[in-house]
Structure formats: C-alpha cells, structure tokens
Amino acid sequence: MTSKVGTLPKRHYNDACGAAHALDLVGERWALLVMRELMLGPKRFSDLRASLPGISANVLTQRLEDLERIGVLTRRKLPPPAAAQVYELTPWGYESEPIFQTLGRWAARSPMHDPTLPLSAVSLLLSFRTMFDPQRARGWKARIGLRIGDESFTVRIANGRIEAERGPLEGADVIFAGPAPAIAAAVYAAQPLDMLIDAKALDLQGDRAVADRFVTLFPLPPKVEPR
Amino acid sequence: MTSKVGTLPKRHYNDACGAAHALDLVGERWALLVMRELMLGPKRFSDLRASLPGISANVLTQRLEDLERIGVLTRRKLPPPAAAQVYELTPWGYESEPIFQTLGRWAARSPMHDPTLPLSAVSLLLSFRTMFDPQRARGWKARIGLRIGDESFTVRIANGRIEAERGPLEGADVIFAGPAPAIAAAVYAAQPLDMLIDAKALDLQGDRAVADRFVTLFPLPPKVEPR
DNA sequence: CTGTATCCGTGTTGATACTG
DNA sequence: CAGTATCAACACGGATACAG
Questions:
Q1: Residue B5 to residue A227: CA distance in whole angstroms
Q2: How would you class B161 by CB atoms within 10 Å of its CB: exposed for 0-12, middle for 13-18, buried for 19 or more?
Q3: B115 Cα to chain A: minimum distance (Å)
Q4: What is the H or E stretch that residue A173 is in?
Q5: What's residue A85's pLDDT?
Q6: Shortest CB distance from B19 goes to which of A27, A71, A100?
Q7: If pLDDT is split at 50, 70 and 90, which confidence band does A148 have?
C-alpha cells in the first residue's frame, strides 16, 4: 500500500496546459470539496464525512490518499490525549483558495443555483471571503462571531478588508448562532433577521445594528437570464 | 432526446456552496477543457476533437450537449458557403476565464507538472494572459504575431497590459511560427531562441529584439519542493 | 470511536466501428 | 465532417465487516 509520492492518476489528460494539470491533480469527484472543508484548518475523517453529505467512506479514504500523495495535504497524529488523526492542507494546498473563489463567483450567476441546499460552515465562511464588497464596508470596523453547531468562527471587518476564520466568540460585537443555511438565508437571500429569529432558525446576541449592516456586505452578482 | 434546458446531472453534490455548484455544472471530465478550447472563439466539432487529444467522439457529443443545456455554449450554423456548425461560448461561458487562470496558476507550482506534454494553441495564448507580468513589460509596446499550424494570433502589449486573441499577422513587429510546444519552450523553459530555430522547431520573422524581450514576460511561480 | 478493506450493483467513461 | 452504436473497463456509492 506504500503509494509512491507524486504520481498522477492512470487516467489523465495528456496536456501541458496548467488548468489541465490542475484537473489531473484535483479534478476527480469530491477532491476539491475535501480541500474546501480543510480550508479553515485541519479536520478529522468523521468531520469531513459529516460535512460532505453523500461521500462514502471508501471514496473519502481514496481521495485523502490521493491528495496526500500529490502533496496537497498531510495526515498528522494529534498529541495525546486527543490522539486523533487529522488531515491538514499543506501551504500549497492552502494556496488553492482562489480556485474556490473563481468557481464560486462564476457559478453564483447560474440560473440553476439552488441556495436552499445544505451548506457547510466552512463553505459559508469561505463565501464571505469571496463575496465581500469593500465598498459597502467602507469606514466600518466590526467583529462578528458565528456559532454553527459546535464550531465557532470570527469575522473581522476593518479598513475595507475581511478576515474570516476559526476563532472564539469572545469580543464579538454580535454573535449569530444557528445552522449555516439560516445565516446564508439572511446574507444572500435577504431574509429579514426578525423572520429567522421568530422562526427559531437563528439566534442573535449583541449589537443588532452590527448584524443588520453585516448582512448587506455580500452582494450576489446578477443571474444569467434563464433562457 | 429533447433535453430540457437547465437541468443538473443526476449525480450532483447536494451543496449550496457556489464552488460545488460550479462542479455540478462543469466538473465532469473534459467539460472545462472543451470550454477552454472555445475561449478564443467558436470552433467546429472536428477542431475541438483535434485540439483535445484523447477525447472520444461520443464523450465530446455528450459534453457539448451538457454545456449547451446549462447555457455555457450555443451551437450556430455558419452562413453559406461555409455552412458548418460551430460551437460558441455564451457571454456567461466567456466569463469562466478566471477559473482557468486560477487553476493554471495553482498547478504551475506542482512538482509533477510536465511542460513537455502536448499543448494546444488556445492553451498557449491563454497562458500568456494568465502569466503576463506587468512589471517586466513596463513602458514597452509591441505587437507579436503567432502562426501555429494554420491558425494565427495577435498579442499586443502596451501600458503594462496584454491582449492575446485570434488575429492577423500583418502589422506585427515579429512573428513566431511553429507548434505551440516549441513557443512554450522558448517562453517557459527558457530554451534559447537560436537553439529552437536551429532545430527547425521555430521560425522567426521580424524584429529579433522584440522576440527576445517577449519571451521574458511570463515568469513561472516557484515550484513546490517535491517532498 | 475512528477509520480501513472488501464486495457488489449501477452508472460513466472511453475505444472501436459504423452511419448520414 | 459530424456524429451514433456497441461494448468493455472503471469509478462511484452503499453495505458490511474488520482493525486500532
């Protein structure tokens, strides 16, 4: 089972084009989504499985092997007592983020895009980095906390820039608590916060005005007319 | 056979993430490479087949149908006498170029990338748009012609910007004639022009100094250490 | 609990040959 | 030139059984 480091799949495009090579590396089913889920830090096998509904254990194993072999991620043994194995992107793996951003921005114009589908916490946070509009945040400084399931994230906005990463809720001006799709509904489907709160889909703690402005910072591009 | 407009493949990720939706749309094998080949203008079925070594007729048919159905390309009947059918990207299809750029830039760092593989003319021109370094072209203005097989392209460099598209050779300061991989060798593998010319891999006409500078404008990022 | 290995039904892919 | 038909090989997903 000692797979050689740096081997291409048998079935590869015979093409010197960089994009074609990228597809040889990470173009197989699920590969990019596994990388996406690791984009905000290491995860365990079962975390990955949970955030990728539909992937089966053997396919996930296969993809993790592939991605390790090509140098996109590494497996690490966490020190005891939490002696679990985690998968972590290499620096080069982390550099793939622009791929998700251009894919996401392009697909956001698709008439077939269905925003009501399930959404992972990592996807939501990455979408904030992708869709953030510096214009709308001009001169604004805020710190937003997100609690999604048992994970917590910090979003900092300052100087027309955004940071979105794993982090503590402490010190946030306002905290959103709820499943990722509910927060997405507020931000991308312009669902009024009151509605979501009344429906118990979302909970807010802290400065409501900050929340109200936050949800306006991520405009979607116009959809292509459905032909 | 009347496939409905705007349907997703049966096998799709159940994920509201934009990147996942993009993969539902164009993540199937060959789909993105077909789009790449159309990026510089319409092509016919056989042109596509010729520039995508390895694709089989039935798969190309399938992908063209899929891409038409989702609104990425259209089929057009050329007016007589050249009454051939051509495939052309829609405006939204053309907007996918950043996807190729981020994929290509990321994969250019791969230790497994083999630049000696076959390369299509369109790939080469797109790589110029992707890898162009404005710094190195500061204050330079030039017009380069490329003759690759029976296709011709024009590259214009001015004001730290590059344009690369189909166009006539007339008016170029210098003309490169040869297969795409030979031109790529000069630009990306730093193969001396004299060597390529002596080996009859490349032919130059016009201002040699312009050619010498042109081949320095597209620096590759450093490779990841091969681990 | 955290993965890994194996089997199996099904759908996708790709090579070859063939038709309008 | 522009595809279609057929068939073999492979990849995927689900289930189950197994190992640390």
A1: 8
A2: exposed
A3: 5
A4: none
A5: 86
A6: A100
A7: very high
Residue type (1 letter), B14: N
Q: In this complex, is the C-beta atom of A83 within 8 Å of any C-beta atom belonging to chain B?
A: no
Residue A83 has pLDDT above 80, yes or no: no
Q: Is A4 on the interface with B (CB under 8 A)?
A: no
Q: What does the pLDDT look like over B188-198, one tens digit per residue?
A: 999 999 999 99
Tokens of B148: 């690759």
Give A206 CA → C9 C1' in Å.
53
Residue B77, judged by CB atoms within 10 A of its CB (0-12, 13-18, 19+), counts as exposed
- Percentage of residues in chain A having pLDDT higher than 90: 84
Spatial contact of A16 and B117, defined as CB atoms under 8 Å apart = yes
Distance between CA A119 and CA A138 in Å, rounded?
Answer: 28
Quote the tokens at residue A56. Answer: 């089966």
Tokens (6 digits) for A169: 């809720």
What pLDDT score was predicted for residue B82? 66
Q: Both tokens of residue B71?
A: 């609104």
Does A75 touch chain B if contact means CB atoms closer than 8 Å?
A: no
Give, as one character, the DSSP assignment of residue A136: G
